[in-house]
Amino acid sequence: MSVQTPISGLPTPSGTPGAPKLLEVRDIVTRFTTDRGSLTAVNGVSLSLERGRTLGVVGESGSGKSVLSRSIMGLLPRSNTERSGQVIFEGKEISGLNDSEYRELWGDEMAMIFQDPMTALNPVMKVGLQITESLRFHLNMSKSDAKDTAVALLKAVKIPEPEKRFSSYPHEMSGGMRQRVVIAVALACGPKLLFADEPTTALDVTVQAQILDLLAEQQRERYMGIILVTHDLGVVAGRADEIAVMYAGQIVEQAPTALLFSEMKMPYTEALMAAIPKLTDASHTRLAAIGGRPPDLVNPPKGCAFSPRCPYVQPRCHEESPTLTPSPTAPEHLFACFYPIGSPETEEVRLRIAAQRLMATAPEFVAAPAKTPTPAEQSPVPAPPEQTEGM
Amino acid sequence: MAGSGTAHLRQPSETLLRIQNLVVDFPAGRGKKVSAVSNVSFDIASGETLGLVGESGCGKSTTGKAIMQLPRPTRGEVTLDGTDLCSLRGEQLRNTRPRLQMIFQDPISSLNPRRTVMQIVEEPLNIWKIGTPEERRLKVNEVLSAVGIDPEAAAERKPHEFSGGQCQRISIARAVITEPSVIICDEPVSALDVSVQAQILNLLEDMKARYGLTLVFIAHDLAVVKNISDRVAVMYLGKMCEIGNPDALYSAPAHPYTRALLAAIPLPDPNASLDTEHHLEGDLPSPISPPSGCRFRTRCPLAQDICAQVEPQMQHVTGDQYVACHFPLQAVSEVPVALTQ
Predict the structure, then answer these.
(1) What would the DSSP string read from start to end of A146-183?
(2) Is the ipTM of this complex over 0.85?
């Protein structure tokens, strides 16, 4: 790429002894004041990221994944928010910065790609100007240099006819093109850390693949650290080096991608996986829905937050909260569960559920009734009642 | 691809709903028009679920709405049980409405925020003056229980008190209460989390069994469509590409566009290699001036000169799989099995 964007020189080789990590987050807690009381959206999250690596943050709506990335970046309003914990970016504590200090950081050192490309762009400003804005502010570029750089950026994100598109308004572009512009804006000053908050959720599957390919390519070229926030395990599986699964404001499982998928420990991760319709399954395969719904974060349940929905729940889970601890076999695999997948307690429950399913689906083999069963006949063992979202 | 033809239609006696050569035009200003749907044909047997997939702008939602006659299609036939809905007017058309219902993408905005759940779900019965007030109330309770909402607790509450998944259950209750033959589901799970999506998909299967429904299921997520459908139709820029049963269509797509759609799906498996070879480049062309011949040719890796000149017609592949492509990825029958007319 012949872009003259400052790619911040050559990457500092990560892993050099003594070099600080790109990002280190310690025990972040974010609370919002609401009419009903204090809502704990992020509850004690710690993580770290090196340059050139991608961390996937996965969870359902309301799990706190977007608030986490905004807390790290300092994008939350101050009026009704209470934040504690440390955010260390390249060895410097940044959580106490004021607005003008953050302004130096945003766009230059760290940038964010938002979910909705229409609302992330200013509708009454030409896209070229939205890219050159940060180049002029952070890098003091002249107008013509900034324009050349912006056109090169538009080209780098594969927008056809970049010179012409430089003077287009966002509404003249398709959703996929707009998201490319948002990416170009985020990449303009060569940030070291990129937050991508559901960057492809608003896009079609073919465009999603293009955008994810583009992000991976730009990451290689610029040696950025990326935090990829998504609800889609499929998106992170192919793109992230490490995955953190969030539930009710906490990381409940974290591991390198391959390890997470091969050895899930947390029942929530397993349930999330099982709920996805698989292309390899025959059509009309019954989906394993997760019963119930995420907890109310103003009044979180006692004990483990997933316990009301967990199929393997034990009495202890309702009383004590598990903490995120490394697996005894693989220290890079962390999970917060007293009875992880594979422990004797969960295996026993799993067998029991499987047996009930079998008897419910094939009563004639198990119960061997003397008369021919009519379709309306109830199976002798009732199927486990499928929980619905509940009222 | 992206072609026309009716070779894939079955005998009218075998089908409940039959859409033939459907065209929906919208005015695009300065005397131009957009053909959002252009010569689309398909049919659905009673009790079947047809999945309609494609990117945004391919005309799948417009097709769903045109079946409902909202708005009325520009040309073509929509035959429900032997009656051509496009030829009906006024009261006659209104009388077919209870047989066709619709579920929308955004569950919260599709319910009136100022009414209670009871009023929302009961309204179709009031409009059609079905039963006494007492019978209506019982029917509402029955339907609400069937969709997994507790009628005691929910009846007097308003939509804002429910989550997205629960609102979608209430929309489903409202749709099934008139005991329709066909429900058109327009992206009913796109706005929901995977865990809730699984609940709603399971619920739709249950409702289909319980009320003997026939579904048209419109979605952009191929895995979701495969899960629920008996037959899948792939659309591109207002045209049909391919139709067939999902197991065959997904394992052996005959249309390059179907293959590209399948290649683009991110799989929840880190060991699955990314099929970047078949990823599509570029965006959907403008439907105001669509490409000549096959509309997919501008993005198709296999396109030749003929694709720009001749629009491909539906050809038989195998079983119930049909494709509209000059260079299909699977062998097509020499003599297309014509089941039309």
Answers:
(1) HHHHHHHHHHHTT-SSHHHHTT--GGGS-HHHHHHHHH
(2) no
